[in-house]
């Protein structure tokens, strides 16, 4: 029986995950009992309960699952703990590394119903449909870190192996091949040796995909181009930290970070989560937007279970509720009626019909 490990985590994770699970069970109607949904602790919630951000039991359940659905982790309550024990460094990064989830995939599609929700002009964001592939288990976030006393200093090592670069590039090329056949590899090759190495390998992998047009762009220019003319991009591939920053920037094209889904995969196995964090400022108030998590659940059906029809039904239901004018607070313009997290989840379930 396919297993889905469900990890609500902290803050709004506790509110958005039940909505995504509700939508999943509704779209699988009649077959939901063919899937095992098992909930486990992670992040601050796990620290409070069992003293560890990533308990053994949770890690084991993630290893055994076909897919993991995660809310978010972290919050001010745990920010005073030593860095390695905090929810982000103590749970999220080791989980990605342990499951070898080397590719983070974040689609950014500007839906016609949300054109006016973007902070950018409508004619700039209209029709934007791009996917960012971010390398997730290498680079600065995983390199050696440390401090020296004399002189007082701190360092994080940025290192990439050829294999790490090759595998994410292949995945990005394959996706570009199934889309508009344009891949933009983002680096900082004018300054960084690791970027020059990345560019060499990208150029080499391109030989296997002659029908895909490969371009290279410096990360500072990419940030500027994503705001100036985002419609030029089809698939973007980049290393860990550049991807972290560019995907948050790109999320605003679609109106709110509350709309941005993400999948972190290694083959069929994946961890699916919204691109945003635990939003402590709005947690517990039933005002968070659950759509990024619901769209992440759709990605899960597609990537891990090959349930393309069901994934599309969820995506269409999300479109429908937005076209009906339903808005959570993050999407609403002044004067527009606002609905809560739970009501938005209910509306998506209803729109599945
Ligand atoms: P955040 O994404 O949690 O919040 C940024 C802003 O976006 C806030 O104003 C928040 O209210 C808003 N927002 C986020 N998601 C929303 C949603 N679904 N609906 C409506 N508004 C939404 O980022 P942050 O404030 O930098 O981080 C808060 C905590 O989350 C920190 O502890 C951070 O480390 C953690 N975090 C976790 C993850 C993760 O679990 N993958 C990712 C990023 C940050």
Task: Give a written overview of the molecule.
This protein is of the alpha/beta class. It has 2 domains: 1-103 and 257-353, Isopropylmalate Dehydrogenase, CATH 3.40.718.10; 119-254, 3-Layer(aba) Sandwich (Isopropylmalate Dehydrogenase). It is 40% helix and 19% strand. The protein has helices at residues 13-27, 44-50, 56-64, 87-98, 122-125, 162-177, 193-205, 219-228, 240-251, 291-305, 308-323, 341-351; strands spanning 3-9, 36-39, 67-72, 103-109, 129-135, 145-148, 153-156, 182-187, 213-218, 235-238, 261-266, 269-274. The strands form 2 sheets. The protein has a 10-stranded mixed β-sheet with strand order 2-1-3-12-11-4-5-10-8-9, sandwiched between helices. Strands 6-7 form a two-stranded antiparallel sheet. It is globular, with a radius of gyration of 20 Å. The protein starts with a strand and ends with a helix. The protein binds nicotinamide-adenine-dinucleotide. Residues 12, 72-75, 88, 92, 257-258, 273, 276-282, 288-289, 292, 330 line the site of nicotinamide-adenine-dinucleotide.
Brief descriptors of the model:
10-stranded mixed β-sheet; binds nicotinamide-adenine-dinucleotide; 12 helices; Isopropylmalate Dehydrogenase; globular; about 350 residues; alpha/beta; 2 domains; two-stranded antiparallel ribbon
Layout: helices, strands, pairs:
Layout: E1 3-9, H1 13-27, E2 36-39, H2 44-50, H3 56-64, E3 67-72, H4 87-98, E4 103-109, H5 122-125, E5 129-135, E6 145-148, E7 153-156, H6 162-177, E8 182-187, H7 193-205, E9 213-218, H8 219-228, E10 235-238, H9 240-251, E11 261-266, E12 269-274, H10 291-305, H11 308-323, H12 341-351
Parallel strand pairs: 1-2, 1-3, 3-12, 5-10, 8-9, 8-10
Antiparallel strand pairs: 4-5, 4-11, 6-7, 11-12
Helix pairs in contact: 1-10, 1-12, 6-7, 8-9, 10-11, 11-12
The structure holds nicotinamide-adenine-dinucleotide.
Nicotinamide-adenine-dinucleotide binds near residues 12 and 292.
